[in-house]
Amino acid sequence: MKKIPLSIHIIACLIFIITVLLSVFGGIVGYKYREAELAKLHRELEVELMKLQISLGGGFRNYDIDQVKTVLYASMRDPRITGIVASSDELLLVVGRNTDDQVTENISKDKLDQEIKLDGQIVRDDIVLGHVELYATSRQLSAQLFIFFKIFVISILLLDLFLIVTLYFMLKKMMISPLMTLKDFIISTRTGNVDRIMLSKVKFRGELEVLRSSIVEIINELDYRYKALQESETGFKALLRTIPDLVWLKDINGTYLTCNKAFERFVGKSVNEIIGRTDYDLFDKELSDWFRAHDKLAMDKGVPLSNEEWVHFSGDIEKTLLETTKTPMYTEDGDIVGVLGVAHDITARKRNEEERISLQNELSRMQKFEAIGRLAGGISHDFNNMLSVILGHTELILEQLPEDSPLREDLHEILEASTRSTELTRQLLTYAREQKRAPELINMNNLIGNMIRMLNRLIGEDVHIKWEPGKDLWQVKIDPSQLDQIMVNLCVNARDAIDGHGTILLATSNVSVTETLKLTTSEAVKGKYVKLTVTDSGCGMDAGVMEKVFDPFFTTKDFARGTGLGLSTVYGIVKQNNGVIDVTSEPNKGTTFDIYLPRCLETEVLAELAPPRAGVEIPQGGILVVEDDPSMLSLITRSLTNEDYTVLAANNPVEALLVAENNRDAIALVLTDIIMPGMNGVEMVLKIEALLPGVKHVYMSGHGHDVLKKFHFDKANENFIQKPFLASELLMLVRKALAVNKHN
Questions:
Q1: 3-state class of 582 per DSSP?
Q2: Which of 191, 336, 363, 668 is deepest in the core (most CB within 10 A)?
């Protein structure tokens, strides 16, 4: 489209302003003239109305209709009057002009032109005889005004034509020619060939001379700045290309304007192949939609926005995580021109953060387990003492009651409940890693294979156990009873997760981990493992339950069906044996527990103490019992006395040393608690052995093995019995200790 010259704009603006001013002036004059003429018309009509009132007075007084009509017709000769209505109580006359502008009588009052209406009373000798209404029009006045405005408009048009011609030649000489020269000069600067002599050919005056001087100065300044800008752009491009982060710039339509070397590597194209293209020319539609959506979001919000995105660099196999910040770009006037993108590779940082969070979670879990473990270990001693008293007295009563006593059934219930409580304390100690264990080299296939029949009875007929032993399974070192606990707890837990019929899969396999293996809820370090897998077809777990699945006392079962210690006990056993436990599950898709136990390359045979030979005389020497719990001391004393042992009792180590000093020849064995106030049992036994060389000893405690190690009790072959215990178990260990020590 051809542009309109500046001179035409200037002339048009001037003509428009003059025309508007003259039109306003003419309008004001016309308005004033019309107002004056209307006022004059009103005055003349009021005079005519007064004449009518006087002239009609005689006719109304004498009831002379002809006289009234004559007066009305005479008044209608005035072309401005459109109608007259004269009325009284007995008379109504209407005279007006019809559509042909003829005066006629009895015309409808509603058809009269009512542009101007005047009315008055007909009075004669101070008596009101009737009423007269005068109707008139201002059409003649409007016609005169129309003629006036027509002449006025023609005058304005002639004046505008004169001004156009005059202004054009004046502007051409004074402004247009100099400005065209300036335009040609400015155009010449685009090619770099600045023709400064060109400006001397035209004479500039006034403000144009100032403009010419200013333009020359501007051109010189632009010359200098252009060279500086070129140098700056060269430096900027070098800096941009060396930035390790991805940097790019797009316009508002998503077209790439520039980018750096890192972005070229991401796209796999050179900068010349990228500039001028959009995301849809370089990437697939899904990724392009993602990029454009975030571009538009940043431009709509008007603030920098950051997001993380996994992308593939051209030629790379693994994905890279980029933290991208998109900043809207504006002109100095505040108009948005595009968006600047900067992407930083945070893959390593993200993985470090995930590893740190994983380690932090593991640390928190271990701290929580340690705290609860300390609590479990702390209460187990007193609780085990109480259970031992209950078990011991129940056994004593049962021995004294006849077989047909009705109380035996109740006592058996007490005995069974106490035994279950004993198992609960052992689970707590196992969880707290304080339970004394006897690890052995085992093949899990053999132990689990021997347990299948027992597990089938435990689980029930509705659930089928499928056993898939691994070939050439490696050995592991673990207490067999702990493996029994693992299998029972996991299988019972799986059974409870199955509603109706279902399947539990038990499988073993050898696993070699060449580098840290990230599992669902844990990780296994480099090494060789034997993997035990327990999979059920039950209800599964959601993420919230999985986070707490190994927490002690956490259970989703009814109170009567679970204590919440089963899986935490399994967790404690696995950790105690330097293993890893992992769980994967989804709601309604079952659950899988994977246990990784380290492979053991040792070849050893654990020696067992041979039982006493038949016919060997068991010495019946005195037994020094040292126990700070009065109930336990009384129970043990009574149990040993019933077996014809001579018992010397002491409430604390100090008292025990005095008893030993005073009864050197009467003591064959010391039966003592380990942790007591003032002095522990191990230290006390060492002092008694110094007084009584060859004296035997048996230790007992309600604490776990890890706690007892602090008191130098760490020998696997020590005679030791864990509280709570049955009286029969204690008597068996006492006999065994006396017999073994005798043959030693």
A1: strand
A2: 668
Question: Can you give 213-280 as a three-state secondary structure string?
Answer: HHHHHHHHHHHHHHHHHHHHHHHHHHHHHHCCCEEEEEECCCCEEEECHHHHHHHCCCHHHHCCCCHH
- CATH number of the domain encompassing residue 517: 3.30.565.10
DSSP letters for 439-481: -EEE-HHHHHHHHHHHHHHHH-TTEEEEEEPPTTPPPEEE-HH
Span of 227-236, 377-386, 521-530 with lowest mean pLDDT:
377-386
Q: Do residues 219 and 194 lie in contact, with contact meaning Cβ atoms separated by under 8 Å?
A: yes
Q: 315 lies in which domain range?
A: 243-345
Contact between 403 and 586 (Cβ < 8 Å):
no
Supply the pLDDT for residue 51. Answer: 84
**pLDDT score, position 508:** 94
Residue predicted with more confidence, 182 or 295: 295
Burial 683-712, CB ≥16 within 10 A → b, else e? ebbeebeeebeebbbbbbbbbbbbbbeebe
Beta bridge partners of 269: none
Return the structure tokens found at 556. 């989703």
Percent of the chain with pLDDT over 70: 78
Whether the predicted pLDDT of 135 surpasses 70:
yes
Asked if residue 725 and residue 662 are part of one domain, the reply reads yes
Q: How far apart are CA 281 and CA 12, in angstroms?
A: 49
Same domain? 458 vs 522? yes
Token representation of residue 526: 């480099």
CA 35 centroid distance within chain: 76
Residue 211 lies in a domain: no
Confirm whether 616 is domain-assigned: no
Quickly state the pLDDT bin for 611 (edges 50, 70, 90).
very low
Task: Please write the tens of the pLDDT for every residue from 542-591.
Answer: 877 777 777 766 665 554 445 556 677 788 888 888 888 888 888 888 89
Assess whether 7 and 36 both reside in one domain. Answer: yes
Q: Are 125 and 112 spatial neighbours (Cβ–Cβ below 8 Å)?
A: no
Angle (CA) 574-580-582 rounded to 5° is 110
Backbone angles phi, psi at 693, to 5 degrees: -55, 135
Q: What mean pLDDT comes out for the span 406-428?
A: 68
Torsional sign, CA 477, 480, 484, 485: negative
pLDDT in tens, 180-215: 766 776 676 666 565 655 555 556 666 666 766 777
